[in-house]
Amino acid sequence: MLTMDAVQLRELRTRPVSASGSSQRTLVPALSMKLWYASRLEIPGGEVLTGATLVAIRPTEEEDPQKERMREARGGDGGGGGCWVSDAFEEPYRTAARMLVKRRTYCLEMNSF
Predict the structure, then answer these.
(1) Which of 17, 32, 107, 110 has its CB surrounded by the most CB atoms within 10 Å?
(2) Residues 3-42: pLDDT tens digits?
(3) d(Cα 78, Cα 40) in Å, to the nearest integer?
(4) Residues annotated as region Disordered (predicted)?
(5) Cα angle at 79 between 77 and 82, to 5 degrees?
(6) Domain locations in the chain as residue ranges
């Protein structure tokens, strides 16, 4: 599932991604990706998800380390930075996402080159 909020859609309309001057390639913004995986995840209600995988991608510049620390101190995301991720889903997948973000987080950053 890919979601964008109203601000992100507005920004995309007003500032579309353009090709770089020296080439015809499209510039890609710096991205931060987080991945959570469970080979078997049993959620309340008896449902079992096999190979449950959750990937969250957002622009790197949106990540403010101070805000991230404050959010973690409040316990708003289980320490995994995933509260905004689980809120994108409806039940039962919201519960599954909340369970996944409490697991080991794999991080990857991608910069435009």
Answers:
(1) 32
(2) 777 888 778 777 766 655 566 666 777 888 899 999 999 9
(3) 20
(4) 59-81
(5) 40
(6) 29-110
